[in-house]
Amino acid sequence: MDKTRTTLDQWVTLQAVVDYGGFAQAAEVLHKTQSSISYTINKLEQVLDMEIFVVEKRRAVLTSQGEKLLALSREVTNKAIALEIAAKIITKKINNKIKIVIDSLYDSDDLLNKIERLIKNRKDYDIELTKTLLNRDEILSFKEFDLLISHHYIGSLNPIFIGEVSAILVTEPNHYLQKCTQNEIESKLKITPHILLSSTFQEKTKSRQIVKVTNTEIAIKLTRNSVGYSWLPKNIIHELIDDNLLKEVENDIYNEKYQFYMYKNKNQIINDIIISYLFNDYQTN
Fold it and tell me: How does pLDDT run across 106-123, given as a tens digit for each residue?
């Protein structure tokens, strides 16, 4: 039997350097020293007789060979994790479970209906459904999910685009921003508190004061109480606008959207179950 000269630890280290943006960041996440990370990568390059990283402007950048190797390495580590999960299930140490995490900005009755169908038809699995707002760094370090939907695009995690929704700039109907002329809006936004749901919109107006919130309910309440303005998904707030509880700030400067992506975790068996019930309409290659 042929034996491998590389280890899973080396592949995990390679992925961490790429996913977290460098050797120092990978060391922090993996609870190792930076010199240990460097040694592991150097050893991997020696064993494979291949240059995986080059340094550009003091930053480690994958070579073309390294990029191909990274993609292949994910297949290896994914299968190793799936094998461990399967072993635990076989020995009855854990229950079969599907963990689904959905961005609180993503609102889809169609998706909820499909999750209900999954629950009814797969009695052999417990379903853990969480709706929350994760920032980009949290997604990179968050491992406890089988399926995650987010408005953050993270190329290294192989995102699958599943749709977009218009982001509406809104305030309470009697807010002073509603009385601004088109020429005044941009300058007035800079001095108005920005009730921020996503870092994606933090640089749009660079407001003097940022109020970060973790879910749409809090953002809506603060906006309705005339604390400031917020960018909210049209499909979530259209009824509030119709009822004159919120009002769009008309402007010809900003035309923004929330784009949503699906991320699958390591267990291919569970991936296949989720895809078959929830996302048959999306391209999954």
Answer: 887 778 888 888 888 877
183-222 b/e (C-beta count within 10 Å ≥ 16 → b): eebeebbeebbbbbbbebbeebbebeeebebeebebbbeb
CA distance 258 to 150: 10
| Helix and strand counts by DSSP (H, E) for the chain | 11, 11
Q: Which pair of tokens denotes residue 58?
A: 């003091």
Q: What is the pLDDT of residues 235-280, one digit of tens each?
A: 899 999 999 999 999 877 777 888 999 888 766 567 677 777 776 5
Measure the CA–CA gap between 49 and 41, rounded to whole angstroms: 12
Quote the mean pLDDT of the chain. 84
- The single residue listed with the structure tokens 């209906």 is 113
Give the position of tokens 């005044």.
Answer: 184
To the question of pTM greater than 0.85 for the whole model, the response is: no
Over residues 208-214, the mean pLDDT reads 90
CB atoms within 10 A of CB 151: 23
The burial class, CB within 10 Å (0-12 / 13-18 / 19+), for 57 is exposed
Query: Is the C-alpha dihedral spanning 33, 38, 41, 44 positive or negative?
Result: negative
CA distance 51 to 45: 6
Q: Residues, the chain, total?
A: 285
Give the residue from 209, 221, 273 showing the smallest Cα distance to 246. Answer: 221
